[in-house]
Amino acid sequence: MKEQIIQADLILTMDADNTIIEEGAVLVRDGLIACVGKAGEIIARHPDVPVKHLSQRLLMPGLINAHCHSGMLRGTAEGLPVWSWLQQFVDPMHRVLLPEEAKLSSLLCYSEALLSGTTTVVDMWRYMEGSAEVAMRTGIRAVLVPYVAEHPDHDYFETLNSNEALINRWHLGANGRIHVWVGLEHLFYALPQAWQRIAAMCKDYQVGFHTHSNESSFDVEETLRRYQLRPIQALEKFGLLDAKKVLLAHCVWVNDEEIALLAERHTGVVHNPVSNMKLASGAAPVEKMLQAGVAVGLGTDGEKENNNLDMFEEMKVSSLLAKFVSLDAAALDAWAICRMATVDGARALGMEDSIGSLEEGKAADMIAVRLDTPRMTPLITRGPLMNIHHNLVHAVQGGDVDMTMIAGEIRVENGKLTQIDLSEIIRDVNLQVGGLFARREAWLKQRGAAVNELERLER
């Protein structure tokens, strides 16, 4: 039996009452939380258990990035709305991506996530055997969702066959830290027989389903044109809301009927405010969804449409965007956002029984946030001016995290990764990314030549 007590000045439990414990401690036993409470009491009851004292630190649940894409296109896919951006930057990359580049991308992104306080990531990506190996190596908790397409126009993505193979090889691997779900890039990227197989795979393997939905106005207009239904209604009609757990990214352009359907079907939603702003997609009606009882988590989306994977930044932008579009300074309060990044994110994934809050019986996934920074000053811990949650949402940055623990194992300590050398990852990405860009450029030129020749022949 492996035991340790983690003591901190403040513990933010994110339980049902958003309990804050001053001079608190967490007893960790075999990767699980055995007890949370006052440090003096826990240490007295367990005098032989080693204590790790984190002075000037706040201990809280690890953040849950509920929608992300590994990648290495940061800063090179700019200035286009979502569908043009996909066609000109992202899909051509997928056509030429190599497995070793996909694996290195996951290593880069999971490292960035850990360093900024994310303990669980939902990653939709390619060649995810490599992603699973990276999750094993880094210790992150990962929901792996292959970027599936089952359509002749999109035959350069993953397939349901490769998705099924990944489930058989990796689902519940790494002592349950790795989950594999069925993925689909978008409803448009599959034919009807594929929708049927997705529903069957989710039922047979008892795994979740994840896709993008209602991200842009074009998404809604095109779904109405093709199926005479709005996107959420189409997903329901085609059996794609029947999985054990369904998680939909974005849901920017949902109407009241769709929100009611999401709530009725207990479908989780991921709000990606930075991506939605950058790609000019719009602002999701988050408060309406929360009021309807929809479980809404937070996600960064990928490094190419966000440019970083800092979930604390995502929390701040969520707050500001809600206030900006509603012209209501009280919109989407700080507690709601803290919950979206932790326990409500877990609920959106159907994992609230095991992660998302610091409570007895849950996984020991927690982070330490520095209190000795200007961003946490002044710090008022009680009374009507208590500002812990406001500081976490509006002031803290990912770099203020200096410890990340997952399943009782410390993966970041003193602000540094404990398992891997970050400088090597950065060097390797910079060495490999040129080849990816060169192959993408060559494909685009070849495609341009083919299009020009077709136009010449048509004339």
Automatic annotation (TrEMBL):
<dbReference type="GO" id="GO:0016810">
    <property type="term" value="F:hydrolase activity, acting on carbon-nitrogen (but not peptide) bonds"/>
</dbReference>
<dbReference type="InterPro" id="IPR032466">
    <property type="entry name" value="Metal_Hydrolase"/>
</dbReference>
<dbReference type="InterPro" id="IPR050287">
    <property type="entry name" value="MTA/SAH_deaminase"/>
</dbReference>
<protein>
    <submittedName>
        <fullName>Atrazine chlorohydrolase</fullName>
        <ecNumber>3.8.1.8</ecNumber>
    </submittedName>
</protein>
<dbReference type="Pfam" id="PF01979">
    <property type="entry name" value="Amidohydro_1"/>
</dbReference>
<dbReference type="InterPro" id="IPR006680">
    <property type="entry name" value="Amidohydro-rel"/>
</dbReference>
<dbReference type="GO" id="GO:0018788">
    <property type="term" value="F:atrazine chlorohydrolase activity"/>
</dbReference>
<comment type="similarity">
    <text>Belongs to the metallo-dependent hydrolases superfamily. ATZ/TRZ family.</text>
</comment>
<dbReference type="InterPro" id="IPR011059">
    <property type="entry name" value="Metal-dep_hydrolase_composite"/>
</dbReference>
<feature type="domain" description="Amidohydrolase-related">
    <location>
        <begin position="59"/>
        <end position="410"/>
    </location>
</feature>
<keyword id="KW-0378">Hydrolase</keyword>
